[in-house]
Write a structure and sequence with these properties.
7 helices; mainly alpha; single chain
């Protein structure tokens, strides 16, 4: 096997593994598969962690994970697929950030790893063992990488920023309520 062949096989394995995990996570959100809670349950969870409206947030996250994951696994529209998946994982990382890095403590380790791998695949490309290659890279042009990553980064910054403001306001409201209760006693 030449280095070029090894690279293509390695990219295929990364795409299949990362894309498969992302697609399964998204299917939990969208369809309730693999022990997930579907749109309703995931929407309620999204609301509880500051993503509002919850149902729309669950749908967007589920589509980004399922669609991005499937497209990454297939090696199709790799810049857009990787960017969408990375954006979804940035949103998930924001939820887990207060728990630290390690997943065993509820941290962002898993989401960050998936997101960085998806972004890396968007930048690197899918390799020759992909639908993008078979189709002549019509959905995998060089200019698409910064366009997709930039658009998703901007959108993610807006969504995560709004979520962080909601969480901060909620926490400030809870603290005010606790202080009022102390003075009433």
């Amino acid at each position: 096997m030449t280095c070029f062949d090894r690279r293509d096989l390695g990219l295929l394995l990364l795409r299949l593994g990362t894309g498969g995990v992302l697609a399964a996570h998204g299917a939990q959100k969208l369809f309730g598969w693999f022990g997930g809670h579907g749109i309703e349950g995931t929407g309620q969870f999204m609301e509880s962690v500051g993503y509002a409206p919850g149902k729309a947030s669950a749908t967007a996250a589920g589509l980004a994970e399922t669609g991005g994951g499937l497209l990454l696994a297939l090696g199709l529209a790799t810049p857009a697929a990787g960017a969408a998946a990375a954006g979804a994982m940035a949103g998930a990382s924001a939820v887990h950030l207060p728990s630290g890095f390690f997943a065993q403590e509820g941290g962002y380790e898993h989401a960050a790893s998936l997101g960085l791998t998806a972004a890396g695949l968007a930048v690197t490309g899918p390799g020759r063992l992909s639908l993008d290659h078979a189709l002549g890279h019509v959905l995998d042009r060089g200019w698409m990488v910064p366009a997709a990553l930039g658009a998703v980064a901007a959108g993610t910054a807006v969504v995560v920023g709004a979520r962080n403001r909601r969480v901060r306001r909620q926490q400030e409201g809870e603290q005010e309520g606790e202080q009022e209760a102390l003075f009433e006693e």
